[in-house]
User: Which sequence fits this backbone?
């Protein structure tokens, strides 16, 4: 710890949301130290979050925007007062995490040349079947391919320092990378969210915009876990929890579907949760 601050790095969740989570964890760490020192403070007080890290408005005429390093679709949409879904539709974007530096984004349905509308596929009329001749049955439809299983990364060398458990039973829909700094676990609204290990709640509230109801838990050996986008919070700041205890319910905030965003950090550094959680 240097100058009273936890050495936490920026989160990207995508980048703008993760930056807020990083600051929330930093503040939660300060609050946790205040608790240990016997200081008094107002419970569930929302952390002060710097929201100035936003992209500039459109940089060229015609209602367009040129993507710069660090931009996310969510940042561009909010800075230009447009809806994320509309921005995806106007620019034929299927994966909002795949922006390219230098890419020109249309900020309205009329900016630039309109996207070509695909011509309707003509429907073939059925051929008449002669009397007395049996109709040939249609060929069997091949079964839909199952999604590829999420590869399991090698076990971290320090994974055994804590007894870990899965925070939710849903499938992993987003793996760890340099942008997400955590994993997304799918599910249904109201599914239970459990503490991944024994620890003490550093923050429980919804004062960080873009993360919904957020819980941060401090564990032994320098580990911290974060649980975002919850529908309901069931624990309070300062409360001690055990691994597997229900702390929240799966929700949907600033996301396209219900999910839990889960992160593990070691000494302030985000690590891949799949290297720590037990095999399913």
Assistant:
């Amino acid at each position: 710890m240097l100058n009273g601050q936890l050495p936490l790095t920026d989160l990207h969740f995508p980048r703008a949301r993760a930056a807020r989570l990083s600051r929330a964890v930093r503040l939660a760490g300060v609050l946790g130290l205040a608790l240990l020192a016997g200081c008094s403070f107002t419970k569930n007080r929302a952390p002060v979050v710097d929201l100035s890290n936003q992209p500039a408005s459109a940089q060229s005429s015609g209602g367009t925007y040129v993507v710069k390093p660090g931009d996310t679709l969510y940042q561009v949409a909010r800075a230009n007062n447009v809806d994320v879904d509309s921005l995806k539709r106007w620019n034929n974007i299927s994966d909002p995490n795949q922006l390219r530096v230098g890419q020109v984004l249309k900020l309205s349905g009329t900016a630039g040349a309109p996207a070509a509308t695909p011509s309707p596929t003509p429907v073939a009329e059925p051929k008449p079947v002669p009397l007395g001749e049996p109709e040939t049955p249609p060929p069997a439809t091949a079964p839909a391919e199952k999604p590829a299983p999420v590869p399991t990364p090698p076990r971290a060398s320090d994974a055994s320092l804590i007894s870990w458990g899965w925070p939710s039973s849903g499938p992993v829909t987003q793996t760890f990378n340099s942008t997400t700094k955590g994993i997304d676990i799918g599910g249904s609204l109201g599914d239970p969210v459990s503490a991944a290990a024994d620890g003490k709640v550093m923050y429980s509230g919804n004062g960080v915009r873009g993360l919904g109801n957020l819980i941060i838990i401090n564990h032994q050996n320098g580990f911290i876990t974060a649980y975002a986008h919850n529908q309901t919070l069931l624990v309070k700041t300062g409360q001690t929890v055990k691994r597997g205890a229900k702390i929240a319910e799966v929700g949907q905030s600033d996301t396209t579907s219900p999910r839990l965003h889960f992160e593990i950090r070691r000494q302030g550094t985000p690590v891949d949760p799949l290297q720590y959680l037990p095999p399913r």
Remarks:
- The first strand starts at residue 64 and ends at 66.
- Residues 65 and 262 are 32 Å apart (CA to CA).
- The domain at 150-275 is CATH 2.70.70.10 (Glucose Permease (Domain IIA)).
- The chain has three helices and twelve strands.
